[in-house]
Design a protein that fits this description.
This protein is of the alpha/beta class and 313 residues long. It has two domains: 200 residues, Rossmann fold, CATH 3.40.50.170; 96 residues, Methionyl-tRNA Fmet Formyltransferase, Chain A, domain 2. The chain is 26% helix and 27% strand. The strands form four sheets. Strands 5-2-1-6-7-9-10 form a seven-stranded mixed β-sheet. The radius of gyration is 22 Å and the shape is elongated. The termini are far apart.
Length: 313
């Protein structure tokens, strides 16, 4: 079976590696163009490109899959199946029609829940206890195709988008080889999604990271986890961005102002912030221009911090 693999972020790397460990023939890797990063804005390759080059696989980085010459080049690899894992571009019908076994999308949610761009962050924001991976036969819609296989996983209270994405990548990697074998062997009947149960996850914006302390402590806690590692959940202190990296919600509150910082006599807790409902106990922070540190260490260096009222977005 000739596999053409499409993916861009770290999520896609482990499934690719697992296919090669299982002796599948990967004929090419398609990934997004290099992006400028850092102060010098030099071009940096995406994680998938780095992984493919290490394994000496052909790498193609089209800006669009809609151009006829791009489609012709792709067809020239003669793929039996195209595997897509967080590629970042919508596949036109001209590409979907090329492989005889179709295009299979590796989606990090239990479809039809959380179709779209940010399913891992969305499931944390929703407070779900379970999520999973869906392998789906792609059609012209957005994550609307029939399901070939699913596997679920519990969400830990400590999970962030970063840690949960890594878990789901490993599950996808373990699931993918067997599904490809069984699909090519005619052993799987695709199951249509229930449209009545469909929900969508919109792309996360950088602005969403700024904390609104009028939300409840539980809601802010979920946002801290969902927006880690990007865009981060942050407030302002001393004219600088103060990122809340790790926190837990506490039920107690009181007559404090919303956004007011309080001292906490709890293990690991450096400080708490009064919210619209409850107190957010902050465990780890990073002040703009500084290294990440425990909240207790931060408070020791910011003597006027306790009692201050932090701004809301």
């Amino acid at each position: 079976m000739r596999i053409l693999f499409m993916g861009t972020p770290e999520f896609a790397v482990t499934p690719l590696e697992h296919l090669m460990l299982n002796q599948f023939q990967v004929v090419a890797v398609y990934t997004q163009p290099d992006k400028p990063a850092g102060r010098g804005r030099s071009l940096v390759p995406q994680p998938m490109k780095k992984a493919a080059l290490i394994r000496k696989l052909p790498v193609v980085q089209p800006t669009s899959l809609k151009e006829a010459e791009v489609v012709a080049e792709l067809a020239g690899f003669h793929p039996d199946v195209i595997v897509v894992a967080a590629f970042g571009q919508i596949l036109p019908q001209s590409v979907l029609d090329i492989p005889r076994y179709g295009c299979i999308n590796v989606h990090p949610s239990l479809l039809p829940r959380f179709r779209g761009a940010s399913p891992v962050a969305a499931v944390i924001l929703a407070g779900d206890e379970l999520t999973g991976v869906s392998l789906m036969l792609m059609d012209s819609g957005l994550d609307t195709g029939p399901i070939l296989a699913q596997e679920q996983v519990s969400i830990s209270p400590q999970d962030t988008t970063g840690s949960l994405t890594a878990k789901l990548s490993k599950i996808a990697a373990q699931l993918l080889p067997e599904v490809l074998r069984r699909w090519a062997g005619g052993e799987i009947t695709p199951q249509p999604q229930n449209e009545a149960e469909a929900t969508y996850s919109a792309p996360i914006t950088k602005e969403e990271g700024e904390i609104n302390w009028h939300l409840s402590a539980v809601e802010i806690w979920r946002r801290v986890r969902a927006f880690q590692p990007w865009p981060g959940s942050y407030t302002r202190w001393g004219g600088k961005r103060l990122e809340i990296i790790e926190a837990v919600p506490l039920p107690e509150g009181g007559s404090l102002a919303v956004g007011q910082v309080v001292a906490l006599n709890r293990e690991r807790a450096g400080f708490g912030v009064n919210t619209g409902d409850g107190i957010l106990s902050v465990l780890k922070v990073q002040l703009e221009g500084k290294q990440a540190m425990s909240a207790a260490e931060f408070v020791r260096g910011q003597r006027q911090f306790i009692g201050a009222v932090l701004p809301s977005s």
